[in-house]
Amino acid sequence: MYRIAVLPGDGIGVEIVPEAIKALMAVGKKCSHQYLFTEALIGGAAYDAVGHPLPEATLEICRQSDAVLLGAIGGPKWDDLPVHLRPEVGALLPLRKELGLYANLRPCILFPGLLQASTLKEEIITGVDLIVIRELTGGLYFGEKSREKTPDGGEKATDILSYSTYEIERIVRFAYNVARKRHRKLCSVDKANVLESSRLWRETVTRLASEYPEVETTHMYVDNCSMQLIRNPRQFDVIVTENMFGDILTDEASMLTGSIGMLPSASIGGQVGLYEPSHGSAPDIAGQKKANPLATILSAAMMLRYSFDLESEARLIEAAVRQVMEDGYRTPDLMEEGKTLVDTVQMGDLVQEVILKN
Ligand code: IPM
Ligand code: MG
User: Fold this and answer.
1) Which of 1, 115, 172, 240 has its Cβ near the most Cβ atoms within 10 Å?
2) What was the pLDDT predicted at 125?
3) How many Å apart are CA 159 and CA 173, to the nearest integer?
């Protein structure tokens, strides 16, 4: 029995999470696995209900589970709350920190049926298969923040970017272990020409590289990386980088997969893994059944792989997504001529059917 905390959150979160549960249930039925789902409040929905975006009860449910499935959080309704009560800073970041989830995995794989959905040229993105490993509990996101008044009547705002050797080693070793099982190429991304934290990052990677001689190690500045990702993405196998750079680069990299609606994520490193799509709560399309549930469904596959060690079950979900794409079904974000437009629920149903049938 796998215990899964289910946190739908806000906006399209409540629409996409049930579709991922359907996929998990289909796999369970097929392979005789059982789950215990426990739903809990997070984000704006939790703030509205109990006055805090990350209630202690939610955190406790997560700690008591084997894995957490999260939809999305935030929206304009909560943007003007004091910062500690906003869904991003008040819920998602502390959840990642509390659960010790220092490693965020964002695999960018182009499903063959989606070649034309991307804004990028086919010959550039054909065959893309890379993974970004983003450090998730350090750096600018968690550094000291402050505001002070200046004599000229303005203000000064500060966010501290710091990394310790321990934090860097931990994520870099993690990345090497992933690279070992893939094409054995690790690109470490930093801004060592300007930032001290990046210089320590690069020195640490260079020192560790000798322990992993079977992996080819390269370094790249983050500005160059953002260019290389759309110039020649096939050069990358595993990218490892700090929190903020990883946030930015993964939104960019999502376009290699056709749509940000296709990019799943796994956050691991602690006792309990957290699985969520890389995209946000998309308030503009919330409640209209337009959201693409596939990033969340693919995140559920990552849960099977990384939290439950069920590799072939994970592949069942991924193969089903591939099949549905090849059959030409598309949510609006991926829609193009000659394809069949479906809504969020229909897309979830299609994936479920293929899992059960295969
Ligand atoms: C992500 C998101 C979050 C982040 C936001 C919602 C705080 O953009 O998971 O990439 O910046 O980490
Ligand atoms: Mg982001």
Assistant:
1) 240
2) 94
3) 27
Residue with tokens 């099977």: 304
Q: What is the pLDDT of residue 259?
A: 84
pLDDT of residue 237: 98
Q: How far is the CA of 243 from the centre of ligand 2 (A)?
A: 10
Tokens of 44: 């704006």
First-to-last alpha carbon distance for the chain, in angstroms, is 23
> Which 3 state secondary structure label does DSSP give 213?
coil
Closest ligand 1 atom, residue 247 Cα: 10
- pTM of the full predicted structure? 0.94
Q: Which residues are catalytic?
A: 141, 191, 223, 247, 251
Per-residue pLDDT at 113:
79
> Which pair of structure tokens corresponds to residue 206?
């260079």
The rounded distance, in Å, linking the Cα atoms of 172 and 176 is 6
* Ligand 1 center to 97 CA (angstroms): 13
CB atoms within 10 A of CB 56: 9
Residues 299, 7: contact at Cβ < 8 Å? no
**Six-digit token pair at 279?**
């995209």
For residues 48 and 322, what is the distance between their CA atoms, to the nearest angstrom? 38
Residues 194-214, buried b or exposed e (16+ Cβ, 10 A)?
ebebbebbbebbeebbeebee
Spacing, Cα 145 to ligand 2 middle (Å): 20
CA-based radius of gyration for the chain: 20
Indicate the residue type of 64: Q
- In this structure, how many other beta carbons lie within 10 angstroms of the beta carbon of residue 338? 7
Pick from 70, 54, 2: nearest CA to 33 = 2
User: Which residues neighbour ligand 2 (ion) by CB within 5 Å?
Assistant: 247
**Rounded CA separation 47/53 (Å):** 5
Least Cα distance to 23 among 288, 314, 330 occurs for: 314
Rounded (5°) CA angle 131-136-137: 160
Q: Whose CA is nearest to atom 4 of ligand 1?
A: 247
- 10-residue block means of pLDDT along the chain (358 residues)? 98 98 98 98 98 98 98 97 95 97 96 84 94 98 97 98 98 97 98 98 98 98 98 98 97 89 95 96 97 98 97 97 95 93 98 96
